[in-house]
Design brief:
cca-adding enzyme, domain 2, Beta Polymerase, domain 2, binds cytidine-5'-triphosphate, alpha+beta
Amino acid sequence: SQAVRADILDLLARGSADTRELLRLAGETAAEEGLSVYAVGGFVRDLLLLTPTRDLDLVVEGNGPRFAGVLAAKLGSGELTLHTRFGTANILFPDGRHVDIASMRREYYEYPGALPEVEKSTLRDDLFRRDFTVNAMAIALNPECFGELVDYYGGMRDLLQGEIRLLHNLSFIEDPTRILRALRFAGRYGFKPAKETAGALRTALDSGVLENVSRERFTEELLLVYREAEYRAIGRALVEYGVLSRWFAREYPWNFSGEDGDGSPLQRWLHTLSCLSGQEAEEVLQRLRLPRPFAAYTRTYFRLRGELAQVPPNLPDLDRILNRVPLWLVKLLAREESGEGAAGGGKVLAEYAEALEKMKLSVNGRVLLAAGLREGKTIGAVLARIRSAWLAGEIKSPRDEETLMRRLLAQTERKGQNLV
Ligand code: CTP
């Protein structure tokens, strides 16, 4: 309706000028080429939710790659990639944003003078192939109808009600990764799966379709969860619906609580494993195809936890185990080990992490060589001494460090390079 169109124009006016210009240009280009073009999917959803929009998906009735070529030429900037076989194209801008361009199915509109009715039914089909009603809306971009919302499936109603709803009940069976997507979108926007959708989700899980998903695809979907600010709410839903216990074929004590929301996906991942045993974590790894750093850090994390449980709680011993471990991981370990039920070492570990954070070690082997020390044991001893002075709080600034270094150098001279 006209009211919705006015709202959309208003929303676009508040958004980025670059995006507005891009949409306008896309519509203008389509009109010149005798085509129709629409913004679709996540862009429309996020625009209507007042969430910052990221990438733009366009569908064109007609030859998408050709349209993309003309549009890219007009835009000037942006790198064009064509997938002619699939009727898709992509324009990547220098700032990292990108536009995906797809063609609607060809069969219908290749007749000369195809009727607008036919054209509409292809957009309807294109949108019907999508996952949820909130993802199946389009905004017309051609100048004569710029800003008109196309909403065949009640996407707007569901946005307002806060519901994630399938377009048809076999959707989870056809594409079981949508099970994770449903809960990810629900968690991201604070929505709920609609009643029938929750039912279809349970039915699909019970029927065992999740097992048809490859490890790669499942892992990919699971990692997308860890990119979400609301990953803990999503994780709890994955547990409650039994998605994780289905996939991993048993219940694990996933930790989707705590205040650790700001970390990187990798930090969040380790946090969610913090209540598992090393053995359980290893089982989890076997069921996934995690990127190498994820798998490697998972193993490191559990190895360190094992070692920390053995070591006497004092700074030098902790430092012996942790001095090559990245600070973020030490902090993660400290946070977890100093929680309730942690062994006596937890407090010292927290102190250690704090000291490490304050440490501004600027002396290294090269500096000492330049200062006249010969290569060998002495350099190691001087460095160790400076490091432990930082840890113990004996030195607190690069100036203190410099003073200590000079003192140690003078000492080694007196003792003939024989500090220890
Ligand atoms: N889609 C689908 N089924 C899938 C994956 C995607 O139907 N298994 C459809 C959705 O309608 C979605 C569109 O393809 O809107 C683009 O997918 P994607 O980029 O993953 O979705 P966005 O909605 O843009 O998600 P995000 O905000 O996470 O980027």
